Amino acid sequence: MFSLCCLVQIKDDWPGYNLDLFTYPEHYHDDIENVYIPHGVIMDRIERLARYVTEDFEDSKIMVLCVLKGGYKFCADLVEFIKVLGRSSNRYLETRVEFIRLKSYLNDQSTEDLHIIGSSDLSFLHGKAIVDTGKTMKALLKHVETFEPKMVKVAGLLVKRLPTMTESLTDYVGFEIPNRFVVGYALDYNEYFRDLNHICVISKTGKMKYKI
After folding, report:
1. Residue 110 pairs with which residues in a beta bridge?
2. Taking every annotated instance into account, which residue ranges of this chain make up the domain Phosphoribosyltransferase (predicted)?
3. pTM above 0.90, yes or no
4. Would you say residue 122 lies in a domain?
5. What is the C-alpha to C-alpha distance for residues 126 and 61, in angstroms, rounded to an integer?
6. Coil, strand or helix: which one is 34?
């Protein structure tokens, strides 16, 4: 588990960047308040996480379990950086990627129910070392453990600071952020905003426009 010094913490009063400083799909102009984490910063941080993973699993084979849909960009970029690091060193980490799709949000609220969409049979995990790249961890980890993997580590681009948070289930954390609903970089609000490269804060207008 990461120590505090290894986290990139975004303070509660961080206002984000003015939209005029970045490019983004123009049809979202009134739907987002600011650019919270620019794409370049995201990529730099993921490269560092890939280095942590490579150091922890040297000379091993790992199964990367990607949680769709919100985790697909993070997963793809993390695996690509792991490959790049391997090609430029003598520690190549062989990776295999599998996918699982979860749904736990309605509008901007996380629900108590975790729905595994598609096959819930994860028997291919038996005896494997796993890096899980997703955000809805507690219920998923409980499900994964029933298939007796050799080891499980969790990688998450974002971890929210919550008053009720007693421990982090994430071993590799990109950014610790306040409890704000963010979109972009494959994170959605009712399937919108996945096409944003930056992570942004959705506006009240955006919530109303795309609410179901």
Report:
1. 105
2. 42-189
3. no
4. yes
5. 13
6. strand
Q: Name the strands in the sheet holding 32-37, side by side, starting at the edge strand that comes first in the sequence.
A: 32-37, 199-202, 182-183
Q: Are 73 and 131 in contact (CB under 8 A)?
A: no
Q: Which of 121, 132, 171, 188 is catalytic?
A: 132
Residue linked to tokens 């990776």: 95
Number of domains observed in the structure of the chain: 1
> How many residues appear in the chain?
212
Residue 20 is among the residues annotated as catalytic for this protein: no
Q: Which residue range(s) make up the domain with 127?
A: 8-210
pLDDT digits (tens, 9 = 90+) for 28-87: 999 999 999 999 999 999 999 999 999 888 667 888 988 888 889 999 999 999 999 988
DSSP reduced 3-state for 12: coil
CA distance 96 to 168: 25
CATH number of the structural domain spanning residue 159: 3.40.50.2020
Q: Is residue 1 part of a domain?
A: no
- Is 14 domain-assigned? yes
